[in-house]
Each structure stands twice: as C-alpha cells, then as structure tokens.
C-alpha cells in the first residue's frame, strides 16, 4: 500500500522587483518513511530550489492519488460509503480521502467519478476542496538510490568525533520512537496526527 507524506518547505524567493519574500510550499511524497520522504524531496527539488528547509513532514491518509498531466491544480476529495462491521455486523459510514489533479471542482468531481466507476459498492463524493499541494512526487519503479552522492557515514568525515557519531545515532533513535507513537487521523485535514500521551 502506498504511503503519502505531506512535506512543507520554506525558502527565500526573489521576486521580479528584486524583493525577497519568505515562501512556504507543500509537496506530497510517496515514501516508505519520514526519512525517505525528506530524502526524495531534497533529491526532487534541489536542482530547482537551491536553499530550502523542510519545516514539516506528516503522514497522510490518502488512499489514492490521481494525476492528470493537463493541469497543476490538486483537489482533496472525501468519499463516503457504508461498510459492515465484522464484529458487530452493523453498518457504519466510512470516509476516505483521495487527491486528484483537475482545473476546477466540477472537473475534479467528474474525473473522480470516472476513476471510481469500477467500484462495486455505492459511494458518495461528499467534499471537494482545493489543496495547497504544489506538486506530487510519486515513487517511480526502478528508481535508483542517490547515485553519485556526496553523503558519507559520519565516521568518515574529517574531524568527526565519537561524540558526533553517538549524537547522530541518538537522533535516529529519537526519530524512530516518534514514528512509532500512536497516531490519530484529523478528520478535517485528512492528516495523521501523532498522539501525545502526556495530555
């Protein structure tokens, strides 16, 4: 199953009047982990945007993304259908989110209907909202891992100390612990929110 990560970047953009503006942009990345999402985003954007920082990476609950080459506008769509609970046998309403490229909401609706025409269960498209996502970066089959990269293990960097190595290991462990925390889905945004057990 595809896992989509919503990544937000910030950088300083020089406008036509030579004024600098702080810009924030969102990208959707197909990746296997938070680290993989960051790596793939840097690889995709580094040639076009020189100095940027990733300010946020969050897992989303999009079940599918439909790309059309004729437009660059993305719409977040919510579909709803009835499903039977395996344990109780009762019907319950289930909501799922999808992202689709379209020039306007009407076209997004029509395209989503066409994409889901093979579904055997009846469904409703309950919401279609313009998404701030600028670009979707899908996984490409056979994609190579960072060829000709200048990345090296921290031990091989001149001047790196044992403390630097231990710090890098600790940061990696902390990131793994954060990923393993229980997650809650925000029904409004469709993002998975990490639950803080301290509350």
UniProtKB/TrEMBL annotation:
InterPro entries xrefs: DUF4494
Keywords for the protein's UniProt record, in alphabetical order: Coiled coil
Presence of keyword Coiled coil: yes
Recorded coiled-coil stretches: 160-191
Lineage top rank: taxon: Bacteria
One Pfam family it belongs to: DUF4494
Name used for this protein in its record: DUF4494 domain-containing protein
Species whose genome carries this gene: Thermoflexibacter ruber
């Amino acid at each position: 199953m595809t896992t989509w990560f919503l990544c937000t970047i910030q950088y300083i953009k020089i406008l036509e009047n030579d004024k600098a503006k702080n810009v924030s942009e969102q990208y959707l990345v197909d990746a296997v982990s938070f680290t993989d999402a960051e790596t793939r985003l840097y690889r995709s954007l580094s040639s076009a945007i020189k100095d940027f920082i990733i300010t946020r990476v969050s897992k989303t609950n999009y079940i599918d993304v439909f790309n059309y080459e004729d437009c660059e506008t993305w719409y977040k769509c919510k579909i709803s259908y009835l499903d039977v609970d395996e344990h109780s046998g009762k019907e319950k309403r289930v909501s799922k989110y999808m992202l689709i490229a379209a020039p306007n909401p009407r076209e997004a609706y029509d395209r989503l209907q066409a994409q889901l025409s093979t579904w055997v269960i009846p469904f409703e498209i309950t919401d279609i909202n313009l998404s701030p996502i600028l670009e979707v970066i899908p996984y490409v089959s056979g994609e190579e891992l960072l060829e000709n990269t200048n990345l090296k293990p921290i031990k091989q960097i001149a001047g790196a100390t044992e403390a630097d190595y231990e710090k890098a290991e600790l940061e990696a462990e902390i990131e793994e612990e954060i990923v393993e925390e229980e997650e809650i889905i925000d029904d409004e945004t469709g993002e998975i929110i990490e639950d803080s057990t301290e509350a």
